[in-house]
Amino acid sequence: MSTPTILLIVFAISLIGAVMAYRRASTLAAAQATQLHSRPVYHASYVACWATIPSLLLLAAWLITAPILISTDIRAKIPEETLAQSELTEGLAYGIVESLGSGLRVLPADERETVTDQTPVKDLSALLRKRGVPVASAGADWMVPLAVELNALQVISRWVMTIAVIVLAGFGAGWGYKKIAPRLRARNSVEGVVRGALIAASSIAILTTIGIVFSMLFETVDFFSRISPAEFFFGTVWEPRFSAAGSTGSAGSFGFIPLLAGTLYIGAVAMLIAVPIGLFAAIYMAEYAKNRSRSVVKPLLEVLAGIPTIVYGFFALVTVGPFLRDLSTEINGLVTGNYSSFIQAQSVLTAGLVMAIMLIPFVSSLSDDIITSVPRSLRDGSLGLGATRSETIKKVVLPAALPGIVSALLLTASRAIGETMIVVLAAGVAANLTLDPFQPMTTITVKIVAQLTGDLEFDSPQTLVAFALGMTLFVITLCLNIYALYIVRKYKEQYE
Amino acid sequence: MENMQATFNKGRAVQAAIPIKMTSRDVTVHYGQKQALNGITLDIPERQVTALIGPSGCGKSTYLRCLNRMNDTIDSAKVGGEIRLDGEDVYDSAIDVVELRARVGMVFQKPNPFPKSIYDNVAYGPKIHGLARNKDELDEIVHISLRKAGLYKEVHDRLDEPGTGLSGGQQQRLCIARAIAVSPEVILMDEPCSALDPIATATVEELIDELRENFTIVIVTHSMQQAARVSQLTAMFHLGDLAEVGPTEKMFSNPDDKRTQDYITGRFG
């Protein structure tokens, strides 16, 4: 039976259990003089929990462990000497066995019976191909019995699992139903289940983060075992593929500095433009705008935040970049008489400018929320002393909102650092190390994408460097976020 | 109309011997469609404490906020009638609101020290109005204001600590010091003790009594005892009207108005 079917049956059992429990509890409530501890609906939930939770846990455990157990069992039976003769690795051999085995299940019953341990692999492959099941050509005759056995094991495992899960669901429902009594604290038990579910949800988020970090960590360590960290962190040349072609010994230059410089430079230009504009927009909206204009302007700004960054990339590529280039041509021509552009179409400035447009709504929306949350009493206090509105904002509101604003800005900075699409289209992919904002540069994220796309083996430093870059980027943004938290804490202590 | 005229007369010419600091004639306030004050006429005597009492929502805080035009900060509020400070029309277009608020300071219900040091809290007003030419003068203003507010002894050795770290009563006295520092002529207090415990309340009340020497004070309060303890003149508001106004002693011993009588004896509120 397929897993969705099993789930459906379990839910059906729990539903039936819940309905019965509701009836039973209602009858008890009506019949007995004593009052129920919990309302009937909690008794129903209580039984439903007993029916679903243990059985679903069993289902999950089985689905995870059974394939592992079966695989170890079958792998142990793969003959060593045949593996030594052919070029097959154990993993690949098991893969073929598995695909043969799962192919068997697709065959109609009468055809499946014709397959025995003695069937040559050629016949079986032909049979499967006829049914549209693709089979690797590297099959060998010894695989057939293993495939048959694997298939048998899987079928048995699934049947046992189905029965066990359904029985457990039924048993759970019965157990819960049996415990229904006027004084049963079903309400408290349900509360416990809710709490558990919430804890599970939040730990999934945390575990995922840890998982992501580790998936990068191992590859990063692998990378650093090939390229020395000093070369990576302090190298000023980024040419990973160049010298790798041909000579396998030397791996090319993995200088991280040009990428870091590009990332920080573009980010800094973007923040330099976005922060004042966004902040002033926020101050206007929070302090000066009448309700009516605020109700128009704020949603409009937030629409800007919803535009996918690739669209900003088009904007940079098609409009801003050429515009800046032509503008520089005109300026150069007017000043020196030499009509040649000094701003390239793809440049740090273009990327910074367009990224700033992307960031403005973030800055303004976050800051606006923070500024409006400064208590009105502080404004009144300042105005009551005869301060003007802008004095009040400058001396009272902004200082009070500062920790929030700083953390909003750091959050925005993390976004600027992590941005990829705008940079690809607006600043190019050339890893230059320059101070000239009119030249193209590139960022860490762009290079991660570049290293991971294309036809690369997974054990070359050219690919692994992407993980090192990702890890570094992760650490940088993590530090920014921790710093933001630290600032918020520090000021909160001071101001509350 | 007759009733209005009666209130009009009630508000005026009380204690004719004492000079009048602020006058209001037929002051009305609308919040959007809703009328919150229906023509208040009241004279505020100089260097006296005037208490505004009355049940919640009667308009006493609204009236108080008219006196230094704090109602301007509320978009929907519209003020009518006439308020004069030393004969100058407060709502005249020629008047500078910022200057007015420096002359008519305000202390709020909830202590609202700025998230700055104690020193900077008090120095805030003098700084923005340019009252001190140098650091020494500023120091002096801060110290004098803190002394007048009776807070100096408690905080003189930690002036650079945040004002928000003080206790509630100290915070409120800090706010009073902050208001004093710009040397206003009138101080408006909107239920200044409602967030304080009895001991802090007593300290603030004593302070109000001392401040009477130098400042004209208008205080909104919910506590009858407080009005009786600190004020010389009491005005009773009811549903946006001025029910009665008179010397505090008389108001609490022998009120003319039935509503005042009921309110101070606790029969409604």
Radius of gyration of chain B: 18 Å
Structural class of chain B: alpha/beta
- Find the structural class of chain A using helix and strand composition: mainly alpha
- Counted up, domains of chain B total 1
So what's the overall shape of chain A?
A: flat
| Largest sheet, strands/sense/barrel of chain A | 2 strands, antiparallel
CATH fold topology of the largest domain in chain A: MetI-like fold
Strand content of chain A: under 5%
Query: Helical stretch count of chain B?
Result: 11
Number of strands of chain B: 10
- Please tally the β strands of chain A and state the result: 2
Distance between the termini of chain A: 60 Å
Rg from Cα of chain A: 33 Å
**Uncertain spans of chain A, ≥5 residues at pLDDT below 50?**
242-247
* CATH architecture title of chain B: 3-Layer(aba) Sandwich
CATH architecture of the largest domain in chain A: Orthogonal Bundle
Order of helices and strands of chain B: HEEEHEEHEHHHHEHEHEEHH
Order of the strands making up the biggest sheet of chain B? 6-7-8-3-9-10
Question: What features would you describe in this structure?
Answer:
The complex is a heterodimer of chains A (496) and B (269). Chain A has 18 helices and 2 strands. With 496 residues, chain A is mostly helical. Chain A has 2 domains: 3-184, no CATH class; 238-495, MetI-like (MetI-like fold, Orthogonal Bundle). Chain A has a two-stranded antiparallel sheet. In chain A, helix 10 packs antiparallel against helix 15. The longest helix of chain A has 41 residues, at 186-226. Chain A is flat. Chain B has one domain (2-264): P-loop containing nucleotide triphosphate hydrolases (Rossmann fold). Chain B has helices at residues 2-11, 60-67, 97-103, 118-129, 135-148, 152-155, 168-181, 198-211, 224-230, 248-253, 258-264; strands at residues 20-31, 34-45, 49-53, 77-85, 88-89, 104-107, 186-190, 216-220, 233-238, 241-247. In chain B, strands 6-7-8-3-9-10 form a 6-stranded mixed β-sheet, with helices on both faces. In chain B, strands 2-1-4-5 form a 4-stranded antiparallel β-sheet. Mean pLDDT of chain B is 87; it is low at 1-15.
